[in-house]
Design a protein that fits this description.
Keywords: Membrane, Transmembrane, Transmembrane helix. It is a single chain. With about 290 residues, the chain is of the alpha+beta class. It has three domains: about 120 residues, no CATH class; about 100 residues, no CATH class; about 40 residues, no CATH class. The chain contains eight helices and eight strands. The strands form two sheets. The protein has a five-stranded antiparallel sheet with strand order 3-2-1-4-5. The chain has a three-stranded antiparallel sheet with strand order 6-7-8, with no helix packed on it. Helix 1 packs antiparallel against helix 2, helix 1 runs parallel beside helix 4 and helix 3 runs antiparallel to helix 7. About 5% of the residues have low confidence.
């Protein structure tokens, strides 16, 4: 197995671990701990990332074109760009899943929860809250009639909705019909189902998908730091890059005789003396970083 093949497998395993973690967190964000599905997904991603980092530190083997379709510089840039941004997505989804479970909601489930529609008897208070997702929402305090087994009871509770609530409109309530002492939750059907094991809301899923697309794009085409071999990359694409065997004959100090327009020309610099059977003696000047 070539090193390029090993790096490709590590990248595929990293993507699989991240995808599994993200999907598990979005399909069922509010699941009772421990979340072994998230632990396994993150574990696979960490192992793959560690393996890829080891391969990157060891560098390429053989000629620049050996081992795969892409040059080593392209592989390195893709890994660096992907690692720079991709870690944010599983961290966000895991944090979202960690904050999603509600103890009171699961107590309702244990007591035999029910999800029904109730009519808003009266709107006591409402205010609009602007948000970064969608177009904001309304935080309101409303009075509803909850149909417990012992008889319907009038309660007031907070309600979050996209539209301004009005008396007479219907909303959803999550409660345990036989246990009024456990309370209840008001909200949309999707938000209440999410509290008891349903999928994440649409805007969270859309945000994750857009982030995945952006990270993939940046990993393939983005450059987030100067590339010291970008010039060699262009020469290679033109078919003018050649590989010659050289041997190091010594290290000393010499005067840089490059053209006056170049940076640091004419200065004394450390240099490495190289030898090649065809070209003779070569000098590699070391610039300050």
């Amino acid at each position: 197995m070539t090193r390029f093949g090993s790096l490709t497998r590590c990248l595929a395993l990293l993507g699989l671990g991240m995808a599994g973690t993200i999907c598990a967190a979005l399909i069922q964000p509010a699941v009772r701990p421990p979340r072994w599905d998230l632990v396994v997904g993150l574990g696979v991603a960490v192992v793959a990332a560690a393996g890829g980092a080891v391969l990157l530190r060891r560098g390429p083997v053989g000629a620049p074109d050996s081992g795969g379709r892409y040059w080593w510089t392209e592989q390195r840039n893709a890994w660096v760009n992907f690692a720079t941004w991709a870690w944010m997505i599983p961290v966000f989804t895991v944090a979202y899943a960690a904050m999603a479970p509600t103890k009171d909601a699961w107590e309702l489930v244990d007591a035999g929860s029910a999800l029904r529609t109730v009519r808003i008897e009266k709107v006591l208070e409402t205010k609009y809250v602007s948000g970064q997702r969608a177009n904001g929402h309304y935080d309101s305090v409303v009075r509803v009639l909850v149909p417990f087994d012992e008889g319907a009871q009038v309660h007031q509770s907070s309600l979050t909705s996209k539209r301004e609530p009005r008396a007479g409109e219907e909303t959803y309530v999550l409660f345990a019909p036989s246990s009024p002492e456990l309370g209840f939750f008001l909200g949309s059907r999707q938000s209440l189902e999410e509290m008891t094991g349903g999928r994440a809301d649409f805007w969270t899923i859309a945000l994750v998908l857009i982030s995945l697309f952006a990270v993939s794009f940046l990993a393939l085409f983005g450059r987030w730091r100067s590339d010291p071999v970008l010039g060699l990359h262009r020469v290679r694409e033109q078919g003018r890059l050649h590989v010659l065997p050289v041997s190091v004959t010594g290290v000393d100090v010499g005067r840089d005789e490059r053209p006056k327009t170049s940076s640091g020309a004419g200065q004394l610099k450390p240099r490495v003396r190289l030898a090649n059977t065809e070209l003779g003696e070569l000098y590699l000047f070391l610039d300050q970083i």
